[in-house]
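Handout, section 3.2

Students often ask what a structure token actually looks like in practice. Rather than define it abstractly, here is a full record for Aldo/keto reductase family protein. The first block is the sequence as you would receive it.
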Amino acid sequence: MEHRHLGSSGLKVSEITYGNWLTHGSQVENDAAVACVHAALDAGITTFDTADVYANTAAESVLGRALKGQRRESLEILTKVYFPTGPKGPNDTGLSRKHILESIDGSLRRLGTDHVDVYQAHRYDTETPLTETMQAFADVVRAGKAFYVGVSEWTAEQLREGHALARELGFQLVSNQPQYSALWRVIESEVVPTSEELGIGQIVFSPVAQGVLTGKYTPGGELPAGSRARDEKGGKTMISRWMRDDVLVAVQGLRPVADDHGLSLSQLALAWVLQNRNVSSAIIGASRPEQVVENVKASGVTLPPETLQRIDEVLAGVAERDPGKTAENAPKARLV
């Protein structure tokens, strides 16, 4: 497992991050979740990403139990705040000072630690002044409850404004967590150049497009048992945009590319996102330990320019590149 700096900070994260969105406390039973975390540790993964909203706080608790007994200084634990949790009252969401300061304490309690390495704004809050949000994050950092601050799915303009305020308040905005894959490339034209300028690194989620880039879904084929496309708790909805025949046909066209490099399709997808040097880490999820073992083999893989060109050509008609999709998919108001 190789490690990279998180943006321009001194913090290093593993190229592959283990994340528990749609798995721990929801799709995967606790014993299996713990086994996946231990497989990640055995494979050299040191970075673990979660959020208070995942399974309405249960995912943080599962991760905390799975990491219990590990040397805390050898881990990078990331969590997030914004989406509704608990009884989902009017202040149980967003990036108000109240919600941030209360949420960090809840996350630390569930994770069984006195600090997280990166505390992330899960989305941009249109209902809270940015100055209030960034001041609250500054206070979290000064209290030692988080070492660094990051965001998720912010536009280039929002990153620039947040970065400037963070500097004024004496802390560093180090990361952005966007969706990014060979099929979803909307960050490349605006978010990535802005991030490179500001010293912000990407910790990308869904690098295998919710499983579509593994090639396990075929046009007209039966959906595999236990797959995300069958998950009625949220996975089926998230993957629906890619369950089109034109996409599934194109993905099958990547098999010869993967074969030429001795990679599985999932390894090829992960290696592809890691070729972008602004990407500090790619998040994987897993329902079985063997998935972790397979996916970590993407770390350290170098794809030559001609291979990247072949991938572009295969996916040319189905890859999404519109930079406006980041703002389009963002919440316009709090969800409660």
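Discussion prompt for tutorial groups: The domain at 3-328 is CATH 3.20.20.100 (TIM Barrel). How would you have guessed this from the sequence alone?
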